[in-house]
Amino acid sequence: MKKITVIGAGNVGASAAQRIAEKELAENVVLLDVVEGIPQGKALDILQSRPVENFDSKITGTNNYSDTKNSDLIVITAGLARKPGMSRDDLLHANAEIVKTVTEKSVEQSPQALLIVVSNPLDVMTYVAFKTSGFERHRVIGMAGILDTARFRTFIAEELDISVHDIQAMVLGGHGDSMVPLIRYTTVSGIPLSELMSKDKINMLVNRTKNGGIEIVNYLKTGSAYYAPSSAAVEMVEAIVKNKKRILPCSVYLNGEYGLENVFCGVPVRLGREGVLNILELKLLPEELSALKKSSDDVKQNIAKLKI
After folding, report:
1. Do residues 154 and 137 both lie within one domain?
2. Distance (Å, whole) CA 236 – CA 240
3. Which positions ≥6 away from 208 have C-beta within 8 Å?
4. What whole-number distance in Å separates Cα of residue 282 and Cα of residue 289?
5. How many domains does the chain have?
6. Are residues 102 and 195 in the same domain?
């Protein structure tokens, strides 16, 4: 792609912009933030790493949406970060206003772009971007399932002392306490996880995955995770830019799939150049489907609070 814009020059946005540039996923990367000097300084710093890291993508920092004009892909990371004792839902109203404004200004400059939303609470903010943009549903995608799955795979690898490369997993549902790790679909080189680990140990790792974000927040005290979230977002960017047609868990607008309607929720999708190429409907067990519905209901309750 010729141009990718990352909105929000905080830790997640700056890390995402750096990874996009280093992987040469766009000729031009634009890093935008409302705070003067921050995107310009970070972009210049990344730019000066080009001779060492051997990439030629150009990166520009700006406070002006006009510089994002004709972007092919826009990654929205803008919003307030969580602090200790703060749930994702506490961020709801403040970040909804930020995401609404960002989306309006972005799509005005780039009406043909695809949107990837990383702002929290993730599923609700993706819904806000979807409604604000007026885009078709395949063009607005939330990053959540990839991050949650990465955390789950990390914990499994640590517990079994094996390579993360050999672990396949899938975490569905909303990005929060009600996320749904599918244990049946979790394997290590094709071996079901249940054959390698006790049920109690699996449940412990599931709970750690559900609390993966707040565990980091509690360590950092004044910030939240950004290395893994930016990696997860860029995995989506790469799948789209290179038309890889990867099957990845993403938050997408559901209109009857899995019996869910008018909600953004994490499900497996096929990602390519046009965005979401299709949604895969797995044959879930009754208890898995019930957990997915509960997770989507949590998202719906928060959407309702915004009165969109």
Report:
1. no
2. 6
3. 151, 155, 215
4. 10
5. 2
6. no
**112 and 167 share one domain:** no
Catalytic (active site) residue 93? no
For residues 292 and 260, the answer to whether their CB atoms sit within 8 Å is yes
C-alpha pair distances (Å), 218 with each of 15, 44, 80, 86, 232: 21, 31, 16, 10, 21
Residue bearing tokens 């038309």: 243
Q: Which residue has the tokens 């049946």?
A: 184
Last residue of a domain, which of 88, 114, 142? 142
Q: Could you give the CA distance from residue 164 to residue 115 in angstroms, rounded to a whole number?
A: 29
CB 104 within 8 A of CB 95: no
In angstroms, rounded to a whole number, what is the distance separating the alpha carbons of residues 51 and 9? 22
Residue 11: which domain range? 3-142
User: ∠ CA 119-240-179 to the nearest 5 degrees?
Assistant: 45
- How many helices (H) and strands (E) would you count in the chain? 10, 14
Token pair for residue 223? Answer: 């910030």
Instruction: Answer with the one of 86, 118, 142 that is the final residue of a domain.
Output: 142
Q: Please give the sequence-ordered ranges of beta strands (E in DSSP) within 77-168, or none if there are none.
A: 114-117, 140-142, 167-168
The catalytically annotated residue of 93, 138, 165, 175 is 175
Asked if 232 and 251 sit in the same domain, the reply is: yes
Q: Return per-residue pLDDT of the chain as tens, 308 residues.
A: 799 999 999 999 999 999 999 999 999 999 999 999 999 999 999 999 999 999 999 999 999 999 999 999 999 999 987 667 766 667 798 899 999 999 999 999 999 999 999 999 999 999 999 999 999 999 999 998 999 999 999 999 999 999 999 999 999 999 888 899 999 999 999 999 999 999 999 999 999 999 999 999 999 988 889 999 999 999 999 999 999 999 999 999 999 999 999 999 999 999 999 999 999 999 999 999 999 999 999 999 999 999 88
Q: What is the CATH number of the domain that holds 42?
A: 3.40.50.720
Q: How far apart are CA 223 and CA 72, in angstroms?
A: 30
